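README: folding subset

This subset contains proteins for which both the sequence and a predicted structure token string are available. Records are stored as plain text. Below is the entry for Peroxidase (330 residues), shown exactly as it appears on disk.
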Amino acid sequence: MKMASSLLLPLLLIFPFLLHPAHSKLTLDYYNKTCPKFAKIVQEVVVDKQLAIPTTAAGALRLFFHDCIVGGCDASLLITSNSFNTAERDHKLRLPGDAFDIVIRAKTKLELECPGIVSCSDILAEATRDLVSMVGGPYYTVLLGRRDSTESRATDVEGHIAKPDMTLTHIIDIFAEKGFNVQEMVALVGAHTIGFSHCSEFASRIFNFSKKQDHDPTMNPEYAKGLKKLCANYKTDTTIAAFNDPMTPGKFDNMYFQNLQRGVGLLASDQVMMFDPRTKPYVELYAANQTAFFEAFSRAMEKVSVHNVLTGNQGEVRKRCDAPNTLKTQ
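--- output ---
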């Protein structure tokens, strides 16, 4: 017992959230004996997919965060709807198909290598970390041993996901309910350094903003002008989108925070962080110090990745990531 305690102490110092019973069942070497090629297979799939589709990293990061923040990291967001139920992924989230595809590809290969062993939630967590690192971001620790949920309901999503038109106080409250403080929230929102947003998500900032202002005055005028041109037909073509970070859109760095200082924040909920005294100090810190941003992002992602996980006999290890092993008809 003394030896076990001495081995556990360093982990608890690094991951204090492991004090939660479910978290304590996650380990770094969970698949070492049952599926030793787990990490290698996931990484191979990640590299192939990211090279083929450069927006995959941003899509997977968004998918992972949304899955974890709604009910926990249980891959419930991967389940498809059926005639008996509307699943989470169909709750107007506009989630990218490439993010789902990378998990499906990895799962297919892992089922051939070690059938019935690796959960879809672990694949998503591992793949997301690998993708973030591949596009220049930090390589943070991913504990393993999650189990998959057996259900997914669209009705569970509302109120858990922050939206661009929400007030900053509302967004801070949403994160606080999940156990994340303001600094962790700012670091996590820094994920917007990659990816894109559809015009409908920021149109109110660039078209008829007010009776006196055509566009949001906190925006750089030239930036607003360019977005207007890009989104001119967004009502007829809903697929039109802009990069969240127009300077280094494919690189995970701290340019996003520097953009906020220049009035080049795409979403209103992002730009306001530059002016609110609760968030401004962290925006300025991360804009000036990429290392500080990476360290804060890593700690926050490690915390997100164990949010309300299923372990032990909870849930299941799905045979297919898009459907529970047993279909529920009600």
